């Protein structure tokens, strides 16, 4: 099947979509950073993309797939906020345990790697075009 | 005894070099793609070894299989990934320039053959 054969374009393309998933998870975490819930179980838990290499033995190329998206096993932060309509009988709410600076770093790293892949792709494309137009 | 490099078809060593450059480009792109994958080990082709094997008559697959090496990281990372983006970017652009030069040599050769055919 053609879909299983990797070439430089599919290597970069799939890696770009993996980076995009990673960026989406960071965005979701940041968006929910200040969300609170009335019960500990209901609080938002940060999500993280798990990357796995996909090797193509025939060509020796390797791209990356998102094998799963896991929810972090972090404990929500208990905050005393009796005025909050979600507060429980003790006047506490549960805030999402999102490390905002870590998520920002994740996002920066991801966008930098995306840029690298775009650069790789455009160089490869230019060289292939030059090869086709050789006269 | 003829020089083995002269027995490599119309375009000499350049055709082989272009194939190898293309393969190396894919390998370095794989490294760049896996910059964030835990436990991924970066690989590269030793171009000299591969080209020498190819000139001596090895097939493309044999030549690259014998010349593929794992990169030795300057500073290993905790997640077992050995991609160092700076090195990969340098290797990628160096290889791209090599590809473009080989292509220029090939282009010249093609032009020469064309002129010979036309009897110019």
Tell me about this structure.
The complex is a heterodimer of chains A (135) and B (120). By secondary structure, chain A is α+β, with helices and mostly antiparallel strands. Chain A has one domain. Chain A contains two helices and five strands; from the N terminus they run αβββββα. A three-stranded antiparallel β-sheet of chain A has the order 1-5-4, with no helix packed on it. In chain A, β2 and β3 form a beta hairpin. In chain A, α1 packs antiparallel against α2. The longest helix of chain A has 33 residues. Chain B is mainly α and 120 residues long. Chain B contains four helices and two strands. In chain B, strands 1-2 form a two-stranded antiparallel sheet. The model of chain B has no long low-confidence stretch (mean pLDDT 89). The interface between A and B is medium-sized, with 31 and 31 residues.
Order of the strands making up the biggest sheet of chain B: 1-2
Strand content of chain B: 5-15%
Counting copies of identical and different chains, the oligomeric state is heterodimer
Helix content of chain A: 40-55%
- The count of helical stretches of chain A stands at 2
Shape label of chain A? elongated
**What is the count of structural domains of chain A?**
1
Helicity level of chain B? 55-70%
Characterize the main sheet of chain A.
Answer: 3 strands, antiparallel
Instruction: Enumerate the spans of chain A where pLDDT stays under 50 for 5 or more consecutive residues.
Output: none
User: Biggest sheet of chain B, open or closed, and with what strands and sense?
Assistant: 2 strands, antiparallel
The class by helix and strand makeup of chain B works out as mainly alpha
Number of strands of chain B: 2
CA distance, first residue to last residue of chain B: 32 Å
Beta fraction of chain A: 15-25%
Structural class of chain A: alpha+beta
Radius of gyration of chain A, taken over Cα atoms and rounded to an integer in Å: 21 Å
Pfam family, one (chain B): Flg_bb_rod
Protein name (chain B): Flagellar basal body rod protein FlgB
Function (chain B): Structural component of flagellum, the bacterial motility apparatus. Part of the rod structure of flagellar basal body.
Family (chain B): Belongs to the flagella basal body rod proteins family.
């Amino acid at each position: 099947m053609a879909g299983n054969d990797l070439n430089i374009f599919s290597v970069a393309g799939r890696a770009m979509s993996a980076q995009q998933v990673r960026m989406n998870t960071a965005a979701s975490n940041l968006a929910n950073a200040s969300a609170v819930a009335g019960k500990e179980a209901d609080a938002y838990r940060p999500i993280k993309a798990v990357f796995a290499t996909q090797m193509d033995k025939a060509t020796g190329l390797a791209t990356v797939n998102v094998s799963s998206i896991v929810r972090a096993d972090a404990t929500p932060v208990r905050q005393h906020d009796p005025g909050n309509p979600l507060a429980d009988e003790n006047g506490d709410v549960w805030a999402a345990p999102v490390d905002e600076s870590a998520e920002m770093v994740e996002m920066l790293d991801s966008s930098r790697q995306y840029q690298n892949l775009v650069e790789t792709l455009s160089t490869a494309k230019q060289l292939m075009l030059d090869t086709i137009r050789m006269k | 005894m003829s020089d083995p490099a002269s027995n490599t078809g119309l375009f000499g060593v350049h055709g082989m070099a272009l194939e190898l450059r293309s393969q190396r480009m894919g390998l370095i792109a794989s490294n760049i793609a896996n910059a964030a994958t835990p436990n991924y080990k970066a690989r590269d082709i030793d171009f000299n070894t591969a080209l020498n094997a190819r000139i001596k008559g090895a097939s493309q697959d044999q030549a690259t299989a014998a010349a593929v090496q794992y990169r030795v990281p300057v500073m290993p990372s905790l997640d077992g990934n050995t991609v160092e983006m700076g090195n990969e970017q340098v290797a990628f652009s160096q290889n791209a320039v090599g590809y473009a030069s080989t292509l220029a040599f090939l282009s010249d050769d093609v032009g020469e053959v064309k002129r010979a055919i036309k009897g110019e």
